[in-house]
């Protein structure tokens, strides 16, 4: 311990400051991980109150990482973790935004790597966040569109969840929105035959009206 009046070099003062910051960071990480790991349906309210006592602005990345790891390790507690994030997001929207960005990246990474267990877990987490109104429904629609593609990027169709149907969009005049209508191949061929027959009738009728 340095006494008063003893000169301390600048590099030693800097090292001491770095050590103090690292210790405080590690302590914040341990407290956030402990709170996320012990959250349940019965103590959700108390965990939220204890969590708001921490420096969540500084540790928002730690909270998002801890929630993602806990949810992937225990998908059965997805609803509890999503409820926790929903409460935190109501006070600190930046945490919900950061979590959604990391979650979307995780979904894309699992889809590209053909990792089905991880993909199911993170998609389940996203679905609960949509139910909690943390995420917008458009994100869920984009994920559905990705899963309904013919093939994944690596050429496998492991996540081709769509049946042998073609999706056709139909615009309604009342709501002015796009609705999705599933058409089977048989109905599509019948529809094409009907259109071709109607076209032939129109052409035949037009030819009969031509002057001789």
Automatic annotation (TrEMBL):
InterPro entries hit by this protein: ARM-type_fold, CWC22_splicing_factor, MIF4G-like_typ-3
Biological process annotations from GO: mRNA splicing, via spliceosome
SMART domains named among the record's database cross-references: MIF4G
Residue ranges, annotated region (Disordered): 184-212
Composition bias type Basic and acidic residues, residue spans: 192-204
Domain MIF4G, chain residue ranges per copy: 29-201
Cellular component terms (Gene Ontology): catalytic step 2 spliceosome
Origin: domain of life: Eukaryota
Molecular function per GO: RNA binding
Protein name per UniProt: MIF4G domain-containing protein
């Amino acid at each position: 311990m340095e006494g008063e009046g003893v000169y301390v070099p600048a590099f030693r003062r800097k090292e001491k400051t770095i050590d103090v910051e690292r210790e405080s960071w590690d302590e914040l990480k341990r407290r956030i991980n402990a709170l996320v790991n012990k959250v349940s349906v019965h103590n959700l309210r108390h965990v939220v109150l204890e969590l708001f006592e921490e420096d969540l602005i500084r540790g928002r990345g730690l909270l998002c990482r801890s929630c993602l790891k806990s949810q992937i390790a225990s998908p059965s507690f997805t609803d509890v973790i999503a409820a926790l994030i929903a409460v935190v997001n109501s006070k600190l929207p930046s945490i919900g935004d950061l979590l959604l960005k990391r979650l979307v990246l995780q979904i894309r990474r699992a889809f590209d790597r053909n990792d089905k267990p991880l993909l199911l877990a993170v998609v389940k987490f996203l679905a609960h966040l949509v139910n909690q109104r943390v995420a917008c429904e458009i994100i869920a629609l984009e994920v559905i569109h990705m899963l309904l593609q013919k093939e994944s990027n690596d050429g496998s169709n492991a996540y081709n969840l769509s049946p042998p149907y073609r999706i056709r969009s139909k615009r309604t005049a009342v709501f002015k929105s796009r609705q999705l209508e599933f058409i089977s191949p048989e109905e599509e061929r019948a529809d094409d035959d009907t259109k071709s027959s109607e076209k032939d009738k129109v052409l035949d009728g037009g030819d009969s009206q031509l002057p001789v």
